Amino acid sequence: MKRFIALTAILLSIAAPKVADAGTIMTTAGKAFAPPAFNSFCSREPRLCRTGGGRGTVILGADKASELKQVNSAVNARIKERSDRANVGKDDDWRVPTAYGDCEDFAILKKRELLKRGWPASALLLTVARYRGDGHTVLTVRTSEGDLVLDNLTNSVRDWSRTPYDYFARQSQSNGSRWERIGGAQRI
């Protein structure tokens, strides 16, 4: 009997390796205000603000996971961190960076790079949080393994609920010009 139980446990771990590691998705809890510089950014770059009106997620196989890691690391290596004040003379300015940028600029460029590779806009959501008392923006990617975060502070692609941030709002999947409050984590 012990052999049967051990064999069953091994087979289950092979057949369903993600069950023990299942990620989480962000639940939303109503409307939120967009960050102040978001609207002016969207008037200049409407394609990067759209979410496609869908509610889809990306099936995360090894190839897609690798692509996320590659885009996150490549953008983090290519762009140098610099505040909006030092970069463009404003306190808050969202843009596609060319050499320098702050957290939202990194997130925007990562979204653009993934869109170029055919990722659906509805799965690529700009997301704002608090970190050590300051605002911080990341790109949340909705996947079959949970909501993953691409962040300029690390090359790791992580489940959003396993980051040190207090999340507060993200773009709506159904309408990218609207934002929604983050309600909490739901296991998938």
TrEMBL record:
Leader sequence residues: 1-22
Q: Which UniProt keywords apply?
A: Signal
A Pfam match: Peptidase_C93
Checking PANTHER family in the record gives:
BLR5470 PROTEIN (PTHR39327:SF1), PTHR39327
What protein name applies here? Transglutaminase
Which species is listed as the source? Answer: Rhizobium fredii
